[in-house]
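Design job #97: recover the sequence.
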């Protein structure tokens, strides 16, 4: 038999070498724990300290020898220390629940000295932490008397790779501990109630003191007001209102404030309304200087004199140290302070003949950044010596009895320069009685500078020019001849009423107003035409008040009352009489 050589391919040799390498690698890694997630292929449980599960875990011992017993159980931990601490905390919570105390978070922890892992720590070496806490009274007489530990080992290929610890503890508590805890709770609650009463009493005293400071600020405000010092009064009211608003955020304020209001009789909750009422009650009155006729070379005109007063609670209080601005027709201004009597005077320096217009203006800061303004107008007529030497008309002086009336809440009074009227709440009316046959035109200029004619106008009165002497007329008037009242729209600001009287028909005024009344014109064009009409009225010359007469009128409720009317007169054949008021919302 002949045996020949067997030749293997090269690839077979590589396959043999790879198989041998894998065999050696398997031998090297045998016995190592694989990386990644550990999976136990076997678990082993044991109980410490004697290998047996104690009976007291499942059945809590009854009270004996003056002690009660409670069981605590931990969660599963990776070490004995944490498991024991958790079990003890659970036992304390069980006792707290028995005493009727709610325990949400255990704020006391325990530390144990560690021995070998197979032994249970001696309960006598427990060390309490330094946390002083509301539960300290509950745990002061609780003592661990017996421990048990369930240890679960995770095995992989018979090697222990992880252990978990579940601890149980039996604690003893003296039977009188429950009474002691209840007594502690009672004393604690009593102490808290006493502290609450003291805190409430202290808070009430503080609140009363703060409210009293509001009353004091208010008293100082009205003391300043009574003395005529407006700005200190308004500042004091503003400070009182700010403090009052801050105090009002406190809930106890609502209980205390009615008592103090009854005690001191001052309503703090409407201080801003009182301040607003004070501002709206300011009047700017003309004392003298209006309707002067002066001949150049015969001395300077009389001073233009205004008085600033406050009508408050039936008393007229002159306002001291209030700035009044006088302005001429060329917009030149001068500021004058009122004196102790509330009077401010300005002496104009005029050398040119003609009609000169002046205005006095009082401005104060009101609420919400809005200004409170009061105005008064003066008209001075300066004649040259030549015009005086000319022949005068032999006709009788032209005169009318005029009264501008207003109604606020059913109370009717005579209007004055700077009066405040409210939209759709206050009413006004114009009365006039010519003492000679004449023509009368009444115009009103609104806050936008647009002029409208109130008389003659069939919308406001069935009467028309010319008018007969001695007859009384009202604007507005119904078709039956009954006097009625006007009220304002929502366009707020300063407004002015002109009454123009003339012996002859005023064709210039009629022509200008007819142009203004045409439809299709822009707002700016109407404003320019309104200014032109107002300038034409002012060239007629002002009428002067020469006397005051009592006139009977009918109120809106048909009640008859008397008011003083102005007898306005002029030696010219025509004149105007005007009044301005402040229109607010």
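Job complete. Output follows.
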């Amino acid at each position: 038999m002949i045996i020949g050589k067997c030749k293997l391919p090269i690839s077979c040799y590589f396959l043999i070498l790879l198989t041998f390498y894998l065999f050696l690698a398997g031998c090297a890694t045998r016995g190592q724990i694989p990386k990644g997630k550990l999976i136990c292929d076997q678990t082993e449980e044991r109980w410490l300290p004697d290998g047996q599960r104690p009976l007291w875990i499942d059945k809590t011992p009854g009270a004996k020898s003056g002690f009660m017993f409670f069981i605590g159980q931990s969660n599963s931990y990776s070490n004995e220390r944490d498991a024991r601490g958790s079990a003890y905390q659970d036992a304390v919570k069980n006792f707290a629940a028995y005493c009727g105390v709610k325990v949400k978070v255990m704020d006391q922890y325990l530390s144990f000295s560690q021995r070998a892992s197979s032994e249970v720590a001696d309960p006598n070496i427990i060390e309490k932490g330094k946390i002083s806490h509301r539960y300290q009274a509950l745990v002061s007489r609780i003592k661990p008397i017996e421990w048990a530990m369930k240890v679960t080992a995770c095995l992989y290929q018979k090697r222990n790779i992880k252990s978990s610890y579940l601890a149980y503890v039996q604690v003893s508590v003296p039977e009188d501990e429950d009474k002691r805890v209840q007594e502690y709770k009672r004393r604690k609650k009593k102490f808290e109630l006493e502290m609450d009463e003291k805190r409430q009493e202290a808070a009430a005293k503080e609140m009363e003191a703060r409210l009293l400071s509001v009353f004091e600020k208010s008293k100082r405000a009205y003391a300043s007001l009574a003395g005529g010092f407006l700005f200190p009064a308004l500042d004091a009211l503003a400070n009182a209102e700010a403090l009052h608003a801050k105090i009002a955020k406190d809930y106890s304020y609502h209980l205390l404030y009615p008592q103090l209001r009854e005690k001191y009789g001052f309503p703090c909750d409407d201080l801003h309304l009182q301040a607003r009422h004070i501002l709206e009650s300011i009047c700017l009155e003309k004392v003298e200087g209006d309707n002067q006729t002066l001949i150049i070379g015969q001395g300077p005109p009389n001073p233009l004199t205004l008085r600033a007063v406050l009508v408050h609670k039936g008393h007229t209080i002159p306002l001291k140290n209030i700035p009044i601005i006088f302005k001429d027709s060329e917009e030149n201004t001068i500021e004058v302070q009122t004196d102790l009597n509330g009077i401010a005077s300005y002496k104009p320096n005029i050398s040119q003949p003609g009609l000169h217009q002046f205005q006095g203006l009082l401005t104060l800061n009101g609420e919400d950044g809005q200004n409170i303004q009061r105005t008064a107008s003066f008209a001075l007529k300066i004649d040259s010596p030549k015009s005086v030497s000319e022949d005068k008309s032999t006709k009788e002086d032209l005169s009318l009895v005029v009264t501008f009336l207003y109604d606020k809440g059913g109370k009717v009074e005579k209007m004055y320069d700077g009066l405040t009227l409210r939209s759709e709440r206050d009413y006004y009316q114009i009365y006039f009685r010519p003492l000679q046959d004449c023509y009368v035109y009444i115009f009103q200029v609104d806050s936008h500078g647009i002029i409208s004619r109130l008389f003659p106008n069939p919308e406001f009165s069935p009467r028309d020019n010319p008018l007969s002497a001695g007859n009384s007329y009202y604007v507005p008037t119904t078709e039956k001849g009954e006097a009625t009242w006007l009220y304002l729209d929502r366009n707020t600001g300063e407004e002015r009423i002109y009454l123009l009287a003339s012996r002859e028909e005023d064709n210039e005024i009629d022509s200008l107003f007819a142009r203004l009344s045409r439809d299709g014109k822009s707002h700016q064009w109407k404003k320019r035409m309104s200014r032109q009409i107002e300038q034409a009225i002012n060239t007629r010359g002002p009428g002067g008040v020469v006397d005051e007469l009592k006139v009977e009128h009918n109120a809106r409720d048909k009640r008859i009352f008397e008011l003083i009317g102005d007898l306005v007169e002029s030696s010219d054949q025509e004149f105007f009489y005007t009044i301005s008021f402040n229109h607010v919302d």
